[in-house]
Design brief:
184 residues, Nucleotide Exchange Factor Grpe, Chain A, domain 2, three-stranded antiparallel β-sheet, 3 helices
Length: 184
């Protein structure tokens, strides 16, 4: 069958004034051009994939940069929130009804709401298992082993990233027995 096709092609090329040798050269040239076109297509596809990866990578780096900048600003604002909370905790009950105290509470709530809108959450401490990734132990005391007994400074997280660890007191397992035993 191949011979029939070759015969037909030879007859067609001869009737057009193309010699069989020229036809073979044209077939070889056509194959070379097809191979070159396949190479160009492969290079274009590779370049397109590289560009898509580049775009994704730059968008990811931009998002990470924005997250880092936000984290830095929030980290610098945390001491202000701490100071507001300490000030409001120490307000005398005689002053509690004054409007400027209510104004300070409003500022504190707005600052907390701003932090929450950015995904900042306080780290749970008292009664939780001590976690060195979340908590910084500065004291040990009598209490359940490995449990956080007290919080000295709040810790905060931004998403799954620790902005500031909580400063805590951790139990050593030497729980004092506060129950009195009856002696017979």
């Amino acid at each position: 069958m191949k011979d029939n096709v070759s015969n037909e092609e030879s007859q067609n090329t001869e009737s057009r004034g193309i010699s069989p040798r020229d036809a073979d050269e044209l077939r070889v040239a056509l194959e070379e051009e097809k191979n070159r076109a396949q190479g160009y297509l492969a290079n274009w596809q590779r370049s397109q994939a590289d560009f898509i990866n580049y775009k994704r990578r730059t968008e990811q780096e931009k998002a990470e940069g924005q997250k880092t900048a936000s984290a830095m600003i929030i980290f610098q604002l945390l001491p202000i929130l701490d100071d507001l909370e300490r000030a409001l905790e120490s307000v005398d009950t005689k002053l509690a009804g004054l409007t400027w105290i209510d104004g300070l509470r409003l500022v504190q709530r707005k600052l907390q709401a701003l932090f929450e809108s950015y995904g900042v959450k306080p780290i749970k401490t008292v009664g939780q298992d001590f976690n060195p990734a979340l908590h910084e132990a500065v004291m040990h005391g009598d209490g359940e082993d490995g449990k956080v007994l007290a919080e000295f400074q709040k810790g905060y997280m931004l998403g799954d990233q620790v902005l500031r660890p909580a400063i805590v007191k951790v139990g050593t397992g030497n729980a004092k027995n506060t129950e009195k035993k009856e002696v017979f």
